[in-house]
Amino acid sequence: MAMTTTFSGAGRSTSTGFMRRAFDRMIDARSKQARRYVNGYLLSLDDATLAAHGFDRNELEREGSSPIVF
User: What pTM value is reported for the model?
Assistant: First the structure.
């Protein structure tokens, strides 16, 4: 009599899902941090320069800014 065993990988997919979510959240947080830093610089420019490059000062202020470098 032969016996076979199969592994469905259920435990592995849970940890992979957790790691993927953690990685995605880390990337999202760093992207938001970078955007706030860039907004801080853009807000230091005059309105004419912002308009020439397609930015709106009010929108940049709503998104927030941060002078802290990573």
Answer: 0.63
DSSP character at residue 19? H
- Report helix, strand or coil for 46: coil
Token reading at 57 = 């000062």
What is the Cα–Cα distance from 14 to 34, expressed in whole angstroms? 30
**C-beta pairs of 52-57 under 8 Å, 24+ apart in sequence:** none
Whether residue 42 contacts residue 55, with contact meaning beta carbons closer than 8 Å, is answered with yes
pLDDT in tens, 7-49: 555 555 555 799 999 999 999 999 999 999 999 999 999 999 9
